[in-house]
Amino acid sequence: MLVHYPRLVTEPVDVLWTGENPPVHAHPGDAGADLVSTEAFVLQPGERRLVGTGLRIALPDGHVAFVVPRSGLAAKHGITIVNAPGTVDSGYRGEVRVALLNTDASEPYEVHVGDRIAQLIVMPVPRVTYTRVEELPESVRGAGGFGSSGYGDRSAANSAADDSQEGTGA
User: Fold this and answer.
1) pLDDT above 70: residue 159
2) How many beta carbons lie within 10 A of that of residue 120, not counting itself?
3) CA of 114: how far to CAs of 31, 54, 117, 136, in Å?
4) Coil, strand or helix: which one is 162?
5) Are 57 and 88 in contact (CB under 8 A)?
6) Residue 169: what pLDDT?
7) What is the per-residue pLDDT for 167?
């Protein structure tokens, strides 16, 4: 059976920027644009550091930018971002800085000027109003919080598999 998904069509967004290095998409279609360090330093195991990118942006109203880790740095070296995703609001005009963290227990990580340290993802955000009510509508999840959808629980998976075979003659 062929499934057709609706194509989300969005207009290009013009993000104004100043600095030495623009955010760059490595490949066509990439959501994130690479941000580079303007500093050279060594990030010791367990150390965190606020790192400059030299980039300042002006997002259009109704948009937000998220600063997110680079998957290769995280997987290969344990380098992540403390507050991921970092939020850049449309009214902010200061330098985009990245709160890097070395999660490796024993290996320091050396950063050079120009190294790609994070990615910037720009997205539209709706204007939101908050309406106080006496009671919230019900949902399937309800008040279930952390871990409520399971945690590799084999008995739950087996139970679901058993339930899916009911009435099939299996």
Assistant:
1) no
2) 26
3) 20, 11, 9, 49
4) helix
5) yes
6) 46
7) 45
Distance CA 114, CA 132 (A): 48
CB 59 within 8 A of CB 14: no
DSSP 26-82: SSTT-S-EEEE-S--EEE-TT-EEEEEEEEEEEPPTTEEEEEE--HHHHHHH-EEET
- pLDDT of 92 > 50? The answer is yes
Residue 24 CA to residue 7 CA, distance in Å, equals 24
Cβ–Cβ under 8 Å, residues 156 and 150:
yes
Q: Which residues of 5-25 are buried (b: 16+ CB within 10 A; e: fewer)?
A: eeeeeeeeeebeeebebebee
Amino acid at position 4, single letter: H
pLDDT of residue 7: 64
Q: Residues 74, 97: contact at Cβ < 8 Å?
A: no
What average pLDDT score do residues 13-31 get?
95
Q: Which residues, 6 or more positions from 126, have their beta carbon under 8 angstroms from its beta carbon? A: 62
